[in-house]
Amino acid sequence: MRLLLKIGAALLAALVLYNLWIFGHIVYWRSSNPSASAFMNEQLARLQEDDPDAELRHKWVPYERISANLKRAIVASEDAKFVDHEGFDWNGIEAAFEKNMKQGKIVAGGSTISQQLAKNLFLSSRKTPWRKLEEAAITVMLEAVLDKRRIFEIYLNVIEWGNGVFGAEAASRHYFGGSAARLAPAQAAKLAAMVPNPRFYDEHRNARGLAKKSRIIQRRMRFADVP
């Protein structure tokens, strides 16, 4: 029994230290930019298994150098209530749960931009109950330490947008040959439509349904509130 208590205490201490390490990074990122994310490191390792010299395509750009079209498209597509909620869209989570139950499989996530950022920055792509709990804890930290504009700026610069492509600037140049500052509404809508499955759409840019989803997002963009 005493041994079990010691093991439990050690695990709890490790968990506390790990979350303090995460919290320290988030505080640091109030004024400094992340150099990489957990997802970036994971995908780089995957690419280098086939090509040891492989590199990611990624370039950080400040918030004001990202097209307002892309900002509105991402909010319209991924998290319409982003500026209003405190990290979690409970109605969206409930709707996603009901949809998944009806389909008998996971077809909707209900994750907010803040939750997606938490996962991308610190966690792996493996889906486990522990990951969802840790994602929630990190989301609370992000919302407590950073304002919405900073959360969105980091999100737009680190999310995956293709095979080894991360961030709005790299994505814009990869798909359209220009900077993220000059994305037209239709281009922004297409990039937003790719976010849920970026590597697939990188290889299947004319995939069935992508154009339709892009048009829906573009119609919604004018109603999107961005920080």
From TrEMBL:
Involved pathway(s): Cell wall biogenesis; peptidoglycan biosynthesis
Membrane-traversing stretches: 7-29
EC assignment: 2.4.99.28
GO molecular-function term, one example from the UniProt record: peptidoglycan glycosyltransferase activity
Keywords for the protein's UniProt record, in alphabetical order: Cell inner membrane, Cell membrane, Cell shape, Cell wall biogenesis/degradation, Glycosyltransferase, Membrane, Peptidoglycan synthesis, Transferase, Transmembrane, Transmembrane helix
Signal peptide extent: none
SUPFAM superfamilies (alphabetical): Lysozyme-like
Catalytic activities: [GlcNAc-(1->4)-Mur2Ac(oyl-L-Ala-gamma-D-Glu-L-Lys-D-Ala-D-Ala)](n)-di-trans,octa-cis-undecaprenyl diphosphate + beta-D-GlcNAc-(1->4)-Mur2Ac(oyl-L-Ala-gamma-D-Glu-L-Lys-D-Ala-D-Ala)-di-trans,octa-cis-undecaprenyl diphosphate = [GlcNAc-(1->4)-Mur2Ac(oyl-L-Ala-gamma-D-Glu-L-Lys-D-Ala-D-Ala)](n+1)-di-trans,octa-cis-undecaprenyl diphosphate + di-trans,octa-cis-undecaprenyl diphosphate + H(+)
GO cellular component, one term: peptidoglycan-based cell wall
Record carries keyword Cell membrane: yes
Residues of the Glycosyl transferase family domain: 54-221
Keyword Cell inner membrane in record: yes
Topology in membrane: Single-pass membrane protein
Subcellular location: Cell inner membrane
Primary enzyme class: transferase
GO biological-process terms attached to the record: cell wall organization; peptidoglycan biosynthetic process; regulation of cell shape
Function statement: Peptidoglycan polymerase that catalyzes glycan chain elongation from lipid-linked precursors.
UniProt similarity note: Belongs to the glycosyltransferase 51 family.
The name this protein goes by in its record: Biosynthetic peptidoglycan transglycosylase
Organism from which the protein derives: Crenobacter cavernae
